Amino acid sequence: xxxxxxxxxxxxxxxxxxxxxxxxxxxxxxxxxxxxxxxxxxxxxxxxxxxxxxxxxxxxxxxxxxxxxxxxxxxxxxxxxxxxxxxxxxxxxxxxxxxxxxxxxxxxxxxxxxxxxxxxxxxxxxxxxxxxxxxxxxxxx
Length: 141
Known about the structure:
Layout: H1 3-35, H2 46-52, H3 57-64, H4 68-82, H5 88-108, H6 113-140
Helix pairs in contact: 1-3, 1-4, 1-5, 3-5, 4-6, 5-6
């Protein structure tokens, strides 16, 4: 695979992860609503969901997948769009994807905050480094 194909594949895996977490959220939420006999209208607003639902792990993780990863998608799009894909970028992109998978697994399962935080912080530092390194390499060309 070319470096560009690796970036597209890494983005595709992130999209699949987002869909998997969305399905998990749907399953958990519907199960809890049915088990506790909560009418859907009773959860129309986020404040109502926070008060009524007990398990928000998957929903919280789904929201997380639209925060820092957006900057990852943007970096990949910029690299692909400009045709400037340094050799190191795909490897770091895959490493970032692995941090997001680990974060999702932790948050959607046992949800130990310090474990989740360590993985999150590693991913954020990696993303910052990727952006800085990319900017420097792009401006040097």
